[in-house]
Amino acid sequence: MNILILGSGGREHALAWAVRQNPKCDLLFCAPGNAGIANVANCVALDPEDSAEVLEFCSDNAVDFVIIGPEAPLAAGVADDLRDAGILTFGPSKAAARLEASKAFTKEICDACKAPTSAYGHFADAEAAKAYIRMQGAPIVVKADGLAAGKGVIVAMDEQTALDAIDDMFGGSFGTAGAEVVIEEFMEGEEASFFVLSDGTSVLPIGTAQDHKRAYDGDQGPNTGGMGAYSPAPVLTEALVQKTLDEIVQPTIDEMAKRGTPYEGVLYVGLMIKDGQPRLVEYNVRFGDPECQVLMMRLGAQALDALLACAEHRLAGHQIHWADDHALTVVLAARGYPGTYQKGTEIKGLDRLRYGSKLHVFHAGTKVDQAKLVAIGGRVLNVTARGASLQEARDRAYAAVELIDWPEGFYRTDIGWRAL
Ligand code: GLY
Prior knowledge:
It is built from twelve helices and 22 strands. It is an alpha+beta fold and 420 residues long. It folds into four domains: 3-91, Rossmann fold (3-Layer(aba) Sandwich), CATH 3.40.50.20; 125-179, Dna Ligase, domain 1 (2-Layer Sandwich), CATH 3.30.1490.20; 190-311, D-amino Acid Aminotransferase, Chain A, domain 1 (2-Layer Sandwich), CATH 3.30.470.20; 326-410, Phosphoribosylglycinamide synthetase, C-terminal domain (Glycinamide Ribonucleotide Synthetase, Chain A, domain 4, Alpha-Beta Complex), CATH 3.90.600.10. The strands form five sheets. Strands 10, 11, 14, 15, 16, 17, 18, 21 and 22 form a nine-stranded antiparallel sheet that branches. A hairpin with a 2-residue loop joins strand 15 (264-274) and strand 16. The protein is globular. Glycine is lined by residues 150, 211, 225-226, 284, 288-289, 291.
């Protein structure tokens, strides 16, 4: 079958790498892709949020299956338009994508299905929001209701920071995403992510992971999209996974189905674990980035079979064949990220690495410029390794990082510390 992946990051490179290995995949396209993805797929210059462009490409190139990577095309309804045109699609509808596109909607679903989560208030008015903050006190979490490119969550350790966040959000710093806010109780515990596929009714777990959000070693510095990740997450024991499925995930899937907006795709379940109790922090309607990189490293070619079973509504009975393995990814970012950074710096040394089922470098922000590989983003490379233990995966990943020659880049040296 001919397959099109929408997106251009490390997540999409990992998806393309896994899908490419499955003999069911004939032609593989990625739109728009990047320099790394170009090694495993045909990159095409399409706007992933423009349904008409995507549909025309699918019809011209006999595309049988579309996998949507990022949240923006999902929130824009690209999955709906593809399905309406009869194209098999992996990714939730616009209505179901509200589980990420509206924080207030997620809370409403949790209330309706009694999924454990933090206490909260939802406000469309700055003064009412501030009064709530003063009443609750700090620490407290302020979230822009809509999609804000990962920047819409402020964990305020003091009241003034929370009040300033309200001014920022209602002042337009987050565009329309900040027109409404959700203010949440600060949850203590250990964070972990759980990934499931759902075909609208059935749920298939596809792995657990933990990422490192802060830019620098020791969980210091500014928040980022993730500087590294590993899978599995030891904090998510089998019993906790079952509890999460029973108390949070299945009730959510049932509630979405009951409302006539079934959830079809991958559900990224962000959890806080304390005293053996999981509580929902957030849902995302896509694979995490860089969590997808470690999940794909572990799943390999069978990822395509699982995504197809999901899109074709036959997840019940579908099985993942797990190896007893671990994967870890180290993100190489441009110096200055997540603030300002230089673009166009050359990366050398990737040809010194031995790629295979235990090591791959997924590209997140690269292009080829005059025969040189250059960085064009904040997070640029994801050096991802697999091993029989987390330590083995970590050693393999860092040994590969050492071979990469990119003076303008930086990385954390302690990915996986919590689990080791
Ligand atoms: N790594 C966090 C995310 O993908 O949202």
